[in-house]
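User: quick one - fold this with coenzyme A bound?
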Amino acid sequence: MAVRARARLEIRKMRPDDLEEVMVIEREAFRHPWSLELFRRELEHDWSTILVGVEPLTSAPGKGSERIVAFLIFWLVHDEVHILNVAVAPEHRRKGIARILMAECEKRAHQANAALMTLEVRRSNQAALDLYREFDYRAVGVRPNYYVDEGEDAIVMVKELKRES
Ligand SMILES: CC(C)(COP(=O)(O)OP(=O)(O)OC[C@H]1O[C@@H](n2cnc3c(N)ncnc32)[C@H](O)[C@@H]1OP(=O)(O)O)[C@@H](O)C(=O)NCCC(=O)NCCS
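Assistant: Sure. Structure tokens for the protein plus coenzyme A:
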């Protein structure tokens, strides 16, 4: 798997003061975006993690010294990691950023000794399907009309992880 060099990309956990920047990406990425309130609540759940990919703009610390270009939301429940959402700002796509976030999520799943990764994806979302297949997720089922907005099916994908005994 080719991970293109992204020396300037850093991954960290989302903070409440990132909300507006993350919402810009969310609204650009999805026809039916989550609300700001939903993201706010997600930040409060112990089982939920939102990773953001940031590009430093200056070496000075603090707000305004970096730009958020992508995010990934996952839940850790018992020994399962469920990926709810991954999105990259349109002008930063196809540079390997989603791949870096997916790899970081999987690393954290291993660290938590999770056994299974799961996610759902729209049947028509070829970019995401290709991304997940690259990470060896396999389709195990279909939820018909899962996305009520357009009545689109969801493909359910899973990936088993090797656990430390
Ligand atoms: C899906 C998405 C997150 C991919 O982000 P990205 O940073 O552009 O992806 P990467 O550059 O890391 O691509 C990794 C691999 O995924 C696949 N892929 C990514 N974008 C693709 C596209 N438009 N068409 C086909 N395959 C694609 C390719 O296999 C790619 O590898 P390659 O570039 O070497 O061919 C991005 O297109 C996006 O934000 N889409 C809108 C939101 C969304 O649909 N999210 C997923 C559902 S939750």
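One thing worth noting: The longest strand covers residues 66-77.
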